[in-house]
Amino acid sequence: MPVLKEMSVAEITKLLQEAGVSPSIQRIKILQFISVNEKHSSVDKIYQDLVSEIPTLSKTTVYNTLALFVEKKIINSITIDNTEILYEQSQKPHAHFQCNVCNNVIDIDLSSSLYGIKKIENHKVEKVNIHLRGICNECLKNGSMK
Amino acid sequence: MPVLKEMSVAEITKLLQEAGVSPSIQRIKILQFISVNEKHSSVDKIYQDLVSEIPTLSKTTVYNTLALFVEKKIINSITIDNTEILYEQSQKPHAHFQCNVCNNVIDIDLSSSLYGIKKIENHKVEKVNIHLRGICNECLKNGSMK
DNA sequence: ATCATTGCAAACACTTTGCATACGC
DNA sequence: GCGTATGCAAAGTGTTTGCAATGAT
Q1: Separation of alpha carbons A13 and A32, rounded Å
Q2: A-B C-beta contacts closer than 8 Å
Q3: Strand C closer than 7 A to residue B52 Cβ
Q4: What is the model's pTM?
Q5: Nearest nucleotide over every DNA/RNA strand to the B60 CA, judged by C1'
Q6: Beta strands B123-135; B95-99: pairing state
Q7: Which CATH number fits domain B9-79: 3.30.590.10, 1.10.10.10, 3.10.20.30, 3.30.200.20?
Q8: Which chain A residues have a beta carbon less than 8 Å from that of B144?
Q9: For B19-92, where are the alpha helices, taking DSSP H only?
Q10: What's the fold here for domain B92-141?
């Protein structure tokens, strides 16, 4: 799991090949953008930045490439609240556990040092969001692995 | 911050009035659904459940009502990964801090008990997602409060 | 009569799909 | 030449907006 930090084209090419991904110019540039320019990259940022260099680039390719990279474990997707879909009652902060099999969301009580935290590394914390994924108790018992 | 647990229509009505929200039948039913039927409710679940009872109900009203409830702090919105927008390099798990002012996402290193956790309350943990929101260091200094 | 609430229809933003074209060994 | 990669256009999904109809006081 190499850390991508201002890697050269040669290094990125090698990394892609080792992951079993053929190193097209689109793939190299997209991975380079993520590793060098932006630690947190959106599809649109990547597209807007690279389309001047590769005028025929399409967003479809960006989507395809990112999905491929996630599948090959070259990058992770992270969840930041974009459009909000789920709602719950006001209650004390807690973690949400979502099962990969049944998709149910289960509240998890935690007494982590995160809770009630007001300040971290000089940033003012207003909301803590913790989201766990995995396989829930019930589904483990049923042996219904995805 | 009352906990809504199988509240009666009368209790919900009172709660809405205390929050300065006039208690229409739509609002009562939506809040009742969240409090009684579903701890984690999506717009669609709410709509599908209530449209049989209130045939003229529209999704717009569900959206409007939920936004109003969040604004009035009657409910919280929670973030579960829906469509993935941001991507980052593979690296050790960490928390993400997103600033309410500049929207930048900043990595937060934490040595919480959550990290490296493999099992919690008998659920198998495959992915830990922690998302903090607030105002970042830089924006606090600039005094550019939203 | 007035003001708030509702809800249809259209617009929107983001993502995925279908398929034809282009590329690389 | 054949299999893979790319990318346009269209469709799909979830949410928001504009505005007219309805409801309450």
Answers
A1: 10
A2: 236
A3: no
A4: 0.74
A5: C7
A6: parallel
A7: 1.10.10.10
A8: none
A9: 25-32, 43-50, 59-71
A10: Dna Ligase; domain 1 (3.30.1490)
